[in-house]
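INFO  loader      accepted 1 record
INFO  loader      residues=299
INFO  predictor   begin
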Amino acid sequence: MEHSGMATVTELDVLRGVVRFSRHPEAELGLWPGSLPHRALCPFPSALPQVLGTLEQVPPSPSEYTAEILFLPLASPEQDRFIREVNASLLELGWRRPESLWPPHHTGGFLSLLQAEWPAPEELPSPPDPPMTLLHDASKMVASWDVRFAGSEQPELYLSLTLQAGHAYDHSTRQNRAARMPELPALVPPAGWSVEVLGGGGSGNQRGSNSASLALLRGEGQTGMLHDQYADQLPSAGWQERGRTGVPELWTSLWRTPEGDLGLLSLAQREEKLWQAHLNLSRLNGAGQQEAGASWFSF
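INFO  predictor   done
INFO  writer      dumping tokens
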């Protein structure tokens, strides 16, 4: 096709233009028919089966590198076998399966007497097999599969394997950072008291993380006595008391955990026979750093 004052434009030129505007306009773009990436920034097999070709982008910043490897279509029952075969090649080169997205079940914070007797829930389902994502930590790269179906009577499968650096790797490992959020010990109320849980959970960013539990307590007693009932349970979780202070309607104590986390236990009387309890545990990452950031996980 020709236009006045323009050189001949090919379908390949159009494809290059679309790709540039959809991703990184300043990247060096490589289209490699029947071939794997030429400039992969991570250990990668020298050959794989059924390769249709590769679209590779190498921006000025290595953290924005991407490569999409396209494979020839497969019959629908073959995708798991094929993905396992390719994954095995990557695992031999130091890639790894992601860890579970969620930490093991843990019940913490203020519990009612009934909750304290509940059995632990069943384990969360196992991650998918074969895994659709692999990680390479040394190069901070992610390899992720995409599967598309085409056709109705005899559908075919189109598979692609995308390599991404930088932010994609950070995103894929954030849940693992969240799993290292400090865990609150489970605290049960004195006999005869009722507990209404108002909330709990945690949040954090690269600088640190925080876990909290908030509850209303109803019963007969005094603030200091109620505080002592809960404080006496913390040493069994490894917490060490660093001090306490109080007035008739408010008692607060300061604690340290074996990991160096800072804990606060507070009991405040709201009205007759009604108290508010707050347990907080905070953790700082990278001692001495002053960087602040927006929260990137919360439960």
